[in-house]
């Protein structure tokens, strides 16, 4: 059996690689684990995290012909986590980080080669991407506290989910 292409995985990897590279330049990210598909690193002491989750599966009409090309809209959930020490700091830390992510997605809505500073970051592994079609908040920003932390302890993260929809041209085999 031939290897199956993980079309969504290509989208998520391209988007996470791009955001990781640019957030490092803006000094939000020190370690690659701060932009990941797992939240297991949230307790590691860093202030900013971006956790990727697959969104709803797009509708695919199963009456396709072999070799047919379809435009597929993939949804990726970006879970933003911003740590704060004092409650007065929560919005002044959260809003600039969220804005940086929104601006990067809008600026680089085509997941192709980009230039950051003097370095090139190729994303050629993202096959057949038309463009990122939208970015929208999935709900209000909320407070977050780890499970197992004493109930009288206040939350120490702000979190919000941003939904990114990316269109990709897929050839069905």
Structure description:
The protein has 173 residues and is α+β, with helices and mostly antiparallel strands. The chain has one domain (7-171): STM4215-like, CATH 3.30.2000. The protein has 2 helices and 8 strands; from the N terminus they run H-E-E-E-H-E-E-E-E-E. The strands form 2 sheets. Strands 1, 2, 3, 6, 7 and 8 form a 6-stranded mixed sheet that branches. The chain has a two-stranded antiparallel sheet with strand order 4-5. A hairpin with a 2-residue loop joins strand 4 and strand 5. The model has no long low-confidence stretch (mean pLDDT 83).
In short:
This protein has 173 residues and is of the alpha+beta class.
Q: How would you characterize the largest beta sheet?
A: 6 strands, mixed
Rg, Å, rounded = 18 Å
**Tally of helical runs:** 2
**Helical amount:** 10-25%
Query: How many domains?
Result: 1
CATH class equals Alpha Beta
- Element order: H for helix, E for strand: HEEEHEEEEE
CATH topology: STM4215-like
Shape: elongated
By CATH, the architecture is named 2-Layer Sandwich
Structural class: alpha+beta
* Uncertain residue ranges: none
């Amino acid at each position: 059996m031939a290897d199956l292409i993980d079309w969504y995985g290509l989208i998520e990897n391209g988007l996470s690689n791009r955001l990781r590279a640019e957030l490092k330049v803006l000094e939000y990210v020190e370690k690659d684990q701060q932009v990941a598909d797992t939240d297991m690193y949230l307790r590691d002491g860093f202030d900013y995290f971006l956790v990727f989750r697959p969104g709803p599966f797009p509708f695919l009409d199963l009456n396709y012909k072999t070799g047919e090309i379809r435009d597929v809209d993939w949804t990726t959930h970006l879970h933003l986590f911003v740590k704060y020490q004092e409650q007065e700091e929560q919005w002044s830390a959260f809003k600039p980080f969220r804005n940086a992510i929104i601006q990067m997605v809008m600026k680089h809505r085509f997941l192709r080669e980009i230039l950051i500073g003097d370095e090139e970051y190729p994303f050629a592994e993202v096959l057949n991407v038309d463009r990122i079609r939208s970015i929208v908040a999935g709900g209000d920003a909320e407070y977050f506290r780890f499970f197992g932390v004493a109930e009288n302890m206040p939350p120490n993260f702000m979190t919000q989910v941003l939904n990114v929809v990316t269109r990709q041209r897929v050839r069905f085999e």
